[in-house]
Specification:
The protein is of the alpha+beta class and about 575 residues long. The protein is built from 20 helices and 19 strands. It has a domain at about 25-60 and about 85-240 and about 385-405. Helices cover about 35% and strands about 15% of the residues. The longest helix is centred in the middle third of the chain and has 21 residues, at about 290-310.
């Protein structure tokens, strides 16, 4: 159902009847669509998208980062894929203390590059099970644009300005991103020939031979060792991504899937459990009640997240208890409609377990989705953590190592304390929803703290208010927590939210902080809805980013299906005439 009066800003959803892809960069979406039109699967398309994002969005994605996937088969089976890398075998707390760091791991530089990049092996695992095209075919667009230059997008241009000092301070970064001491303008070409050669090696030799067990791994680790990084070739050789069962909850007749720890997926499900006890539709979108109750639910969910989240193989995390409906009901009693909880009180007094403290997670991310003509649905997300990751380049590889390991704690009693071979707390969460046992929605967003909140925004606006995917993506968003450059736990709101709503939220005690109308802090959200009743895919892309939702209808070369013949396998029934 589509809301006839929902918010619009001029970009309609993309509605097609064969295959669709959406991402935060237009060229990445085109690479994915190219894979689909050549007969590729949704997994092939997602890998092509991600490879292109490594080139076009190097401040957010890269071969040196991690990835997570949710994949729904046509029959409704949902599989999770964890492609996050563990810390190096030499990464001990004493290793960092001996180098003068007793409280926190440095956020930039070689010491921040301490976890194995997992994304490439995730591609391998997904392709082995679901790929249709040959592995090498998936990287042609990315290699071309890395070699010959990709037009600089608005987001990249803005971050080049923001990080000019950081990039200029490191010769390897300056040589590529600010070669003449100035930030490239939107539309300028950015060539990355070293990255092109690394992508070509992965394309020619596969994930294992081309990245983890060959010359590339040796060059990465050899260049990082003098910077203080504990990563060694043996860490790369030992690493493998893995399949795992997703976690889920029911929200108004829809089964919502997230990944378990080490991701914050359970926090997104907790938010839904908390607000499921309210008549959200009666509040109306954009009202004080809507923003207030969602912000309060976020506070409670994040208190549990910050208490427990780490690698589940190192801490016995009570996921079943945290997602229990009775537990959600008890927590819901703490929410008052007329008064905001103070975040410090939430952290101090109503924890599920023993009290600990951690610095807030941050990071930039790329979420992307694809659906193919066989009914395979992919929701994926990839990141190098902070903008430009560790802010160094590994020798002559063109690869920026992620700084995800900088989120480890050096506190011996912290649940997310550093250990060799341990995966850290991860903000990355792809989202996927099913209805009546069939895939219904693939969705996700960049944004660190904002990801579970944006998941809730998309789902409530589509399920409770009946918005189409583009309306849900474009509606004004909120962010409860810290944004870039702030130390306070604010309720950040986009400027399009009305003055009376802001005044009422302030009256209830919410720490309101206003942001611009279309703010990058709110993340770049993307979604594809599978409309089984009408036999259509409905895809949307976020105008806060540089992406596009693309699709096609011509069956000509796709999986042996002929134009005018058998429809896609995800179609529920034949289209009917509208009177």
């Amino acid at each position: 159902m589509t809301a006839p009066h929902g918010p619009r800003t001029g970009r309609p959803p993309t509605r097609v009847d064969r295959g669709a892809v959406t991402s935060s960069h237009t060229l990445a979406s085109q690479a994915g669509l190219h894979a689909l039109r050549r007969g590729g699967s949704a997994v092939d398309a997602a890998i092509a998208v991600n490879a292109m994002l490594c080139v076009a969005y190097p401040h957010m994605a890269g071969l040196g980062g991690d990835g997570f996937w949710l994949i729904a088969e046509p029959g409704g089976t949902v599989r999770g894929l964890n492609a996050s890398g563990p810390s190096a075998s030499a990464a001990t707390r004493d290793y960092y203390r001996e180098r003068g760091h007793t409280d926190e791991v440095p956020a930039r530089g070689g010491l921040a590059a301490l976890t194995v990049p997992g994304v490439v092996d995730g591609w391998r695992l997904a392709h082995e099970r679901y790929g249709r095209l040959s592995w090498s075919d998936l990287f042609a667009d990315a290699i071309h644009y890395a070699r010959h230059g990709v037009p600089v997008s608005r987001s990249l241009s803005d971050w080049l300005v923001e990080d000019l000092g950081l990039l200029s301070a490191e010769e390897s970064m300056a040589r590529i991103f600010v070669p003449d001491g100035r930030a490239a303008r939107e539309g300028d070409r950015l060539a990355q020939p070293d990255l092109a050669r690394s992508l070509a090696a992965v394309a020619a030799n596969g994930a294992r031979g081309g990245f983890y067990e060959g010359d590339l791994a040796q060059r990465i680790c050899g260049s990082l060792a003098p910077t203080g990084s504990p990563l060694r070739v043996e860490d790369f050789v030992a690493y493998q991504a893995h399949w795992e069962d997703p976690i889920s909850t029911d929200y108004r007749g829809h089964t919502i899937y997230e990944l378990p720890p080490n991701t914050q997926g359970f926090a997104a499900l907790q938010i839904l459990n908390l607000i499921s006890g309210y008549d959200v539709a009666s509040w109306g979108d954009g009202t004080p009640d809507y923003y207030h109750h969602l912000a309060e639910a976020v506070k409670l969910a994040f208190a549990d997240r910050d208490e427990w989240l780490t690698d589940k193989h190192w801490v016995d995390i009570p996921i079943a208890d945290l997602l229990d409906r009775e537990y959600a009901a008890r927590r819901r009693e703490l929410i008052r409609a007329d008064r905001a909880m103070v975040m410090a009180d939430v952290e101090a007094g109503i924890r599920f377990g023993p009290q600990t403290r951690r610095r807030p997670p941050q990071g930039d991310t790329c979420a992307f989705s694809a659906v193919d003509d066989n009914g395979l649905v992919v929701s994926a997300i990839q990141s190098i953590y902070h903008d430009f990751g560790s802010a160094i380049i590994a020798g002559d590889t063109g690869i920026i190592p992620q700084n995800r390991g900088s989120f480890f704690s050096l506190d011996d009693n912290h649940p997310n304390r550093m250990e060799p071979g341990k995966r850290t707390f991860h903000t990355l969460i792809p989202g996927l929803a099913c209805q009546d046992g069939r895939p219904w929605l693939a969705f996700g967003s960049m944004g660190g703290e904002g990801q579970p909140q944006t998941h809730a925004a998309l789902l409530t606006r589509m399920i409770d208010f009946g918005y189409d995917v583009q309306q849900a993506i474009e509606a004004p968003r909120w962010l409860m927590g810290r944004t870039w450059g702030t130390t306070a736990q604010d309720l950040s709101l986009e400027g399009r939210i009305g003055d009376e709503v802001i005044r009422e939220l302030q009256r209830r005690g919410q720490p309101v902080r206003m942001l611009p109308n279309w703010d990058d802090n709110m993340g770049h959200a993307h979604a594809i809805r599978i409309d089984h009743e009408r036999g259509l895919l409905e895809a949307g892309a976020d105008p806060r980013g540089d992406g596009a939702a693309l699709g096609y209808r011509n069956a000509g070369q796709c999986s042996g299906l002929q134009a005018g013949g058998e429809g896609p396998r995800w179609e529920g029934r034949q289209a009917r005439a509208v009177p």
